[in-house]
Amino acid sequence: MENKNLQQRDGFSSKMGIIAAAAGSAIGLGNIWKFPYITGKYGGAAFILVYLLCIALIGLPVMLQEFTIGRRAQANAISSFKKLKPNTPWFLTGWLGFITAFVILSYYGVVAGWTLSYVFSAITNSFAGQNPEALGGMFGALVSSPWKPVLFQVIFMALTAGVILGGVKNGIEKYSKILMPLLLLIIIILDIRAVTLQGAGEGIAFLFQPDFGKLTAAGIMSALGHAFFSLSLGMGTMITYGSYIGKKENLGVTALQVTIADTAIALLAGLAIFPAVFAFGIEPGSGPGLVFITLPNVFNQMPGGYIFAIMFFVLLAVAALTSSISILEVVVAYFVEDKGWDRKKATIIATVAITALGAFESLTNGTINFTLPLLKAGAVTWFGFFDWMIELSDLLLPIGGFFISIFVGWIMSKKDVDDEITNSGELAHSWVGIFDFLTKWVAPILILITFINLIVGFTN
Ligand code: TRP
User: Fold this and answer.
1) pLDDT tens, 295-349?
2) Are 37 and 387 in contact (CB under 8 A)?
3) Which residues have any ligand 1 atom within 6 Å of their CB?
């Protein structure tokens, strides 16, 4: 994604560029940090099955819907609704995306900061010779430290702002085409090591043998929320990116490719983590620290683990950066195009505000005592602001997705939608009818049912 593109709307230069930018946004901490830990929290294979259904029946169509809105309107998320449906409240969908972006990026920066901190731990060889318990303690010490996670969060957010300000065609975008395949390669190597560990079988069963008794209403809500999170949907990122896609490109195929790549990386990350979780006797429901506690054990058990550990955390930080820029851009675009601020002012103010909120969230992990009620797995528990914001984003994204589906299914002109999907009749897709049905009925109804199920689950 190049900064100039965002202002001049001259579009992505190549097919590879589109896929790299959209996949770069999608593939991030969601795949490698969040997916494994919520899978562990909500019980494994049954949760994964629901997640995959959400991806296929809701995520994939919503991605195509967002591309369609953006390419038709040739505008960012907020202006797109104004252009396609002027003088109606539909622009509020864009505004909801703004709030959601703020919420997500605040905690995203914190977790990316942990990743940066682990780069240094890897370089200083701090994992070596530590048992699983000590590695757990190391993570706990990091997140509850009054300064360390905040320092690294600030560094990461400064990098994000720098990219948004600086223009990146020859930087981030070029490198991510090399670095992302490298990340994939390392994950596959980790997979091989993890599944051959003694005691790995239990972890593989956890991933692939569904036990539907473990599925809760909160788990289903989280699977849906995460489908949106992982594919970068529900708040306008893919609307903005859609507006940069050339008129000749096939939107449906692009959406499918990004979805497959994102899902494959999440599943491969799960396969690297759960066999190791069980082999080392780590609790699968350990929460946000799961990846940070589990993988160092795996690095300790493999030849060249020192180098692999450094490479892994560096690449994870890069993956996080190509995602965080796509989140910050939604907030910046709002200030620039709706409030008329200049780009630099917008970027600095947005970054400072989001970083401050994130730092507060981070400190509620140990330093500041601040708890709020959280609806968790059918019971109300008390949690720090950090966990609270994660759960909130899992609610906000599907709400955004609901309105996007309704907009494309019922509000936008049918001809506009068909023109975008078929490139004005040039492409003959046999699946347009299916897309139409998913958009009008399946996606919005499933989202509604999930919310009703959650509410019923908690009032019982
Ligand atoms: N998809 C990214 C990840 O998995 C996070 C992300 C980037 C995102 N842009 C987004 C999430 C837009 C929701 C909406 O890490």
Assistant:
1) 999 999 999 999 999 999 999 999 999 899 999 988 988 888 888 999 899 999 9
2) no
3) 25-26, 28-31, 104, 229-230, 232, 235, 237, 323, 326-327, 397
Pocket test for ligand 1, best of 33, 105, 180, 237 (most atoms within 8 A of CB): 237
Amino acid at 241: Y
Which helix (DSSP H) or strand (DSSP E) does residue 299 occupy?
helix 290-300
Q: Using DSSP, state whether 236 is helix, strand or coil.
A: coil
Mutate to test the pocket of ligand 1, among 25, 102, 172 (most ligand atoms within 8 A of CB): 25
The angle subtended at Cα 119 by Cα 113 and Cα 122, nearest 5°, is: 140
Residue nearest to atom 8 of ligand 1 (CA): 232
Asked whether 258 and 23 are in contact (CB, 8 A), the reply is: yes
CB 253 within 8 A of CB 417: no
The residue written with tokens 């701090």 in the block is: 126
Structure tokens at 364: 């509620």
The pTM of the whole model exceeds 0.85: yes
